[in-house]
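REQUEST FORM: STRUCTURE PREDICTION
Request ID: SP-0412
Submitted by: Lab K.M.
Chain count: 1
Length (residues): 135
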Amino acid sequence: MNHQGKPRKELNVTVTFLEADNTSASRHLGKLPSVDVTAIRQRNGLSQRDFAASIGVPEGTLVNWEQGRRQPSGPAKVLLALLAKKPNLVMELYPAAPPRVRWAPGRPDPNTMTSDERLAEVGEILAAGILRMRE
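STATUS: Completed
RESULT:
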C-alpha cells in the first residue's frame, strides 16, 4: 500500500527471448514488484540530481517517487527493477565523463590546452612548489 492507503499496482511484464538461430522465440509473462527507489539510488552512491539524470527522468519526478507521492510505471519501473538487481548497470552503460578542470582567469583553459601546454604548466607548478620548499 502507498501512503494514501491505495494498493500499489504491480506491472505486468512480457519478456521475449529470441533464440540464437533467430527463428523462434519464447515469452515469459510476470509481474514486476514494487521498487524502493531511494535504496536503489543510495546503492549507486548518487545524489538525487545525478541519479535522475542517469536514468533520464526529471529530478522532481525522482523526488516524488522517493517520497511516495507517485510510483514509477512502465519503462521506468522496468529500469528500476533491473537496477535493483544490478546497481551498476547505468554506470556500465554510461560511464562518467572525465571531470572538467576549472579555469582560472588569466590562465589557459585546461580543457582546450595541447599536451605541450599542459606539460609546460605542470612544469611551472612544480618549479614554484620546489622554490617554496627551499624557502
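NOTES: Strands lie at 11-18, 25-32.
Reviewed by: T.R.
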